[in-house]
TrEMBL record:
<keyword id="KW-0560">Oxidoreductase</keyword>
<keyword id="KW-0256">Endoplasmic reticulum</keyword>
<dbReference type="GO" id="GO:0036503">
    <property type="term" value="P:ERAD pathway"/>
</dbReference>
<protein>
    <recommendedName>
        <fullName>FAD-dependent oxidoreductase domain-containing protein 2</fullName>
    </recommendedName>
</protein>
<dbReference type="InterPro" id="IPR036188">
    <property type="entry name" value="FAD/NAD-bd_sf"/>
</dbReference>
<dbReference type="GO" id="GO:0005788">
    <property type="term" value="C:endoplasmic reticulum lumen"/>
</dbReference>
<comment type="similarity">
    <text>Belongs to the FOXRED2 family.</text>
</comment>
<dbReference type="GO" id="GO:0004497">
    <property type="term" value="F:monooxygenase activity"/>
</dbReference>
<keyword id="KW-0274">FAD</keyword>
<dbReference type="GO" id="GO:0050660">
    <property type="term" value="F:flavin adenine dinucleotide binding"/>
</dbReference>
<feature type="region of interest" description="Disordered">
    <location>
        <begin position="637"/>
        <end position="658"/>
    </location>
</feature>
<dbReference type="InterPro" id="IPR050982">
    <property type="entry name" value="Auxin_biosynth/cation_transpt"/>
</dbReference>
<dbReference type="Pfam" id="PF13738">
    <property type="entry name" value="Pyr_redox_3"/>
</dbReference>
<feature type="compositionally biased region" description="Basic and acidic residues">
    <location>
        <begin position="645"/>
        <end position="658"/>
    </location>
</feature>
<keyword id="KW-0325">Glycoprotein</keyword>
<comment type="function">
    <text>Probable flavoprotein which may function in endoplasmic reticulum associated degradation (ERAD). May bind non-native proteins in the endoplasmic reticulum and target them to the ubiquitination machinery for subsequent degradation.</text>
</comment>
<keyword id="KW-0732">Signal</keyword>
């Protein structure tokens, strides 16, 4: 069948007209629309294909019980829009302030129908180029040395129309239900079709296969009307507050844990689903047994002729028959439409539901094919938020920036600052940046030092997994060392078996910052850009190779890293040690003194005072500096002649006298300069 489909598609391609675009995007869900926005802002030639009549078709059906688990925090106490995105898990990135999700719903956990309406408005208000009712059913390659990546992508839709593009962005998500086949699996109802009316379950006994949010969401809906609910899965329950992974069980859905632990009939079991078997009796009841009990047995002969586990173990946990069995095992990527020439392969182990991709989100098998959105979650599965809107809105932007540099010669956006702004720049970003906060350990800010550390270049939210390729991927140079700023949890703080509420779980003193458990900024310093080999050999669970120096900013209960002594001072001293320079800011009087007593002025004096940009001392400013212990109190010293105490010239002369520096008339200095 696959060969026939491939042959027919080749015939169609060879005989029909190909509609060309530089970029083709498959899927008009959140990731597809986010990619379209960036492409449109850059003025690129693109098209988005959506199989449904409207964007966000996944949310038109899921979650079945219509309550999202992505938070929509209305108030944070701050007006900074970038900071507020840290607590807005539904909005896509755009310049239009109307397209913030909080303008669509005030619910902390919004309704999925609101998400559908939001995505429709996002596409229409921004006039994104989406072609609806177009299901791409086959994708293959056409070799061509003139193409960007050495080949074109050929797409065929359900009407046998053909499209051709240079770069393919797959944002179709994971929507194919995971199904486990075992004897009797035909009696199992799927999450995608099961009734959501609680009254349909009144007085019934239910078994749920699965242990994720969809399973617990289903249980929560019928908890009050069933006889009891049992839930079975291969792995133990993982609570999101323990794992710090938003895809694990959220508190909004965990009512069954209460009824299980408080012995109200419901319960959880662990077991491999492939070892199960279901036998239906004459009354329509479903009996759970194990596959090996049915080996060499005739199931059609009836349940009375079969040996069940309870026949040998009379307290077998699932000996009571069930009225219904519901499958809630999540979804997987649809590999079926991609020709073998694209070499899109599933991952291994617990990421086999995702396609194999590089840390740059490009397919491992085909150059120019990028996976966006939920299907790209293999890069940070169970580590960060890349499988959810509040994560992949940033990784999609990162992919766009990589493509801009690769295909259009547009370097990664950056800003150059004088070295005196290094501490302030870092403090500003760690306190407000949403991309670093949501995609912790995956996206990083990069600071590229200029020669002699007189200035630096700041790049925001670069994928850490391709740090070794930074110069090639960004068009920026890293000749003089670099700092990498990321957010991290403590090394041993997250896990299904961790007690995250133990008494001394938080660190409050700067000298113990490296032991911080909660999310906090970490700065890595490298004298040279790490190599690919160093990236491969990095320590387990480290996002980056071992640096030349590392600094943890101590965790903060308010996630506000602006305390002068606990946060800023240790950071500045770390930066000074790495650079071998003084990053303090000085008053004009101090710079004037340093000019006569030091061979090298601090950077703030070089870039400020010497450039005639220093702050001229006034009575109020000088008094503030004295009270802070930054200057001596020269106002108590007798000044020569009639010069008032707040005279700038007089204070400089007195400062020199206090330090034993001879004071010569200004005219003498001018003459000496002329000589």
């Amino acid at each position: 069948l696959g060969l026939a489909l491939y042959a027919s598609s080749l015939c169609a391609v060879s005989g029909g007209t190909l509609l060309y675009h530089d970029y083709c995007v498959i899927g008009a869900g959140p990731a597809g629309l986010q990619a379209a926005y960036f492409l449109q802002q850059a003025g690129r030639d693109y098209i988005v294909f959506e199989r449904s009549h409207a964007p966000g078709s996944f949310f038109a059906l899921y979650p079945r019980h219509r309550k999202l688990i992505s938070i929509n925090k209305q108030y944070t106490g701050k007006s900074n829009s970038e900071f507020n995105l840290r607590h807005d898990w539904n909005s896509l990135l755009s310049h239009d302030r109307r397209l913030l999700f909080r303008r669509y719903s005030r619910d902390f956990f919004p309704n999925a129908d609101t998400m559908v309406r939001y995505l429709e408005d996002f596409a229409s208000l921004l006039k994104l180029r989406v072609q609806y009712n177009t299901a791409i059913i086959h994708v293959t390659l056409e070799k061509n040395e003139q193409a960007w990546n050495g080949h074109y992508f050929l797409l065929t839709d359900q009407d046998r129309k053909n499209y051709k593009c240079s770069c393919l962005l797959v944002a179709a998500g994971t929507w194919v239900p995971n199904v486990v086949n075992f004897p009797g699996s035909e009696y199992v109802e799927g999450y995608e079709t099961v009734s959501i009316n609680p009254e349909d379950f009144a007085g019934q006994t239910v078994l749920i296969l699965g242990r994720g949010n969809s399973a617990f969401e289903t249980a929560e809906n019928i908890l009050g009307v069933t006889n009891f609910i049992h839930m079975v899965s291969r792995s133990r329950v993982r609570l999101s507050w323990a794992t710090h992974y938003v895809g694990d069980l959220r508190a909004i859905n965990n009512g069954l844990l209460d009824t299980y632990q408080l012995k109200s009939l419901d319960g959880l079991l662990e077991g491999d689903l492939e070892d199960l078997a279901i036998v239906k009796d004459k009354k329509g009841k479903l009996h759970i047994t194990l596959r090996f009990y049915l080996e060499n047995r005739n199931i059609s002969a009836g349940i009375d002729s079969l040996t069940l586990p309870q026949d040998e173990l009379d307290n077998f946990a699932t000996r009571a028959p069930y009225d219904r069995v519901i499958r809630c095992l999540g979804w997987k990527f649809d590999f079926s439409i991609y020709n073998r020439s694209l070499r899109i392969m599933p991952g291994k182990g617990n990421i086999k539901k995702y396609p194999q991709i590089k840390p740059s989100y490009e397919s491992r098998g085909t150059r120019g094919l990028f996976i966006l959105g939920t299907a790209s979650h293999s890069v940070d599965f169970r580590k960060s938020a890349g499988g959810f809107i509040h994560g992949f809105r940033y990784t999609t932007r990162a992919v766009h920036r990589l493509l801009e540099n690769r295909h259009h010669g547009v370097p990664w956006p950056s800003t150059v600052y004088p070295i005196t702004q290094l501490t302030n720049s870092i403090i500003k970003r760690v306190n407000e940046a949403s991309g670093l906060y949501q995609m912790f350990s995956v996206l990083a800010d990069i600071i590229l030092l200029r020669e002699n550390a007189t200035a630096f270049e700041y790049l925001e939210e670069y994928p850490t997994g391709v740090l070794a390729e930074l110069e090639m991927q960004t068009g920026r140079k890293a000749h003089s060392g670099l700092f990498v700023i990321i957010m991290e949890y403590g090394r041993n703080f997250s896990g299904a078996d961790k007690d995250v509420f133990y008494y001394s779980r938080a660190v409050g003193e700067a000298q113990h910052a490296w032991q911080s458990n909660f999310l906090h900024p970490v700065i890595y310093y490298y004298k040279h850009l790490p190599t690919e080999r160093e990236m491969r050999l990095r320590p387990p669970d480290w996002p980056l190779p071992r640096p030349n120096a590392i600094h943890h900013i101590v965790e903060d209960f308010l996630t506000d890293w602006t305390a002068p002594n606990a946060h800023i001072l240790p950071l500045r001293r770390f930066l000074e040690n790495c650079l071998g320079t003084d990053l303090r800011n000085f008053f004009a009087e101090s710079c004037f003194l340093f000019a006569f007593t030091h061979q090298k002025l601090p950077p703030s004096c070089q870039q400020g005072y010497v450039g005639m940009q220093g702050v001229v001392g006034s009575q109020e400013l000088r008094q503030h500096a004295v009270q802070a212990g930054l200057l001596q109190d020269y106002t108590r010293t007798d000044f020569l002649g009639d010069t008032p105490p707040d005279s700038h010239d007089g204070s400089q002369e007195q400062l020199m006298r206090d330090h034993g520096i001879p004071v010569r008339p200004l005219q003498h200095l001018v003459n000496a300069k002329d000589e």
